[in-house]
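About this split. The held-out portion is used to measure sequence recovery: a designer receives only the structure tokens and must propose an amino acid at every position. Recovery is the fraction of positions where the proposal matches the reference. Here is one held-out target exactly as it appears in the evaluation file.
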């Protein structure tokens, strides 16, 4: 009876191995048939928060190597005093891009070259000190050296291959060491 039981377990082990091999082959076929997906990665040019004491203005320059879109997010952070007249605008060598903006998000189309972000405000409360946040993100339009697409794996494929590995890992027999002897106990 023990020999028969042992033969049945080895047949079960072979069945599990065959199923695992078939799953691996199916996932591998999907990987070969599905090409990478191209995505365009945005570049964070500036991401900071800071203080405005009384009336202050700031400027930050960015050298862009290709044309694209700049997205500016200006935030008035409610801590200490609220900043009145918090505004931001962008300029190039040819002049201002659009009009000045208050707190919020706005996008601007830009060409290659230097672009400057200017922001200013007035912390006129009892502390004379306010906090702002400024984020500037550049998204290339694909022309020039920074417009190279970033290949990404197909997410469904990645999920399936990860699940296959976890399933195969779970199906491995557990090794138990008893008195220096290694035994394999099948998982149920």
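Reference sequence for scoring:
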């Amino acid at each position: 009876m023990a020999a028969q039981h042992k033969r049945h377990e080895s047949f079960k082990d072979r069945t599990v191995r065959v199923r695992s091999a078939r799953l691996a082959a199916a996932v591998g076929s999907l990987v070969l048939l599905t090409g990478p997906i191209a995505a365009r990665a945005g570049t964070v040019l500036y991401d900071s928060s800071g203080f405005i004491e009384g009336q202050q203005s700031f400027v930050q320059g960015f050298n862009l190597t290709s044309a694209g879109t700049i997205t500016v997010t200006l935030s008035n952070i409610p801590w200490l005093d609220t900043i009145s007249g918090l505004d931001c605008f962008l300029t190039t060598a040819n002049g201002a891009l659009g009009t000045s903006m208050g707190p919020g998000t706005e996008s601007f189309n830009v060409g290659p070259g230097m672009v400057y972000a200017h922001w200013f405000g007035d912390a006129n409360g009892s502390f004379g000190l306010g906090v702002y946040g400024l984020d500037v993100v550049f998204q290339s339009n694909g022309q020039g050296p920074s417009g190279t697409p970033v290949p990404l794996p197909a997410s469904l494929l990645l999920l399936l291959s990860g699940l296959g590995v976890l399933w195969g890992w779970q199906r491995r027999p557990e090794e138990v060491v008893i008195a220096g002897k290694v035994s394999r106990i099948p998982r149920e």
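Annotator remark: Residues 2-33 form the longest helix (32 residues).
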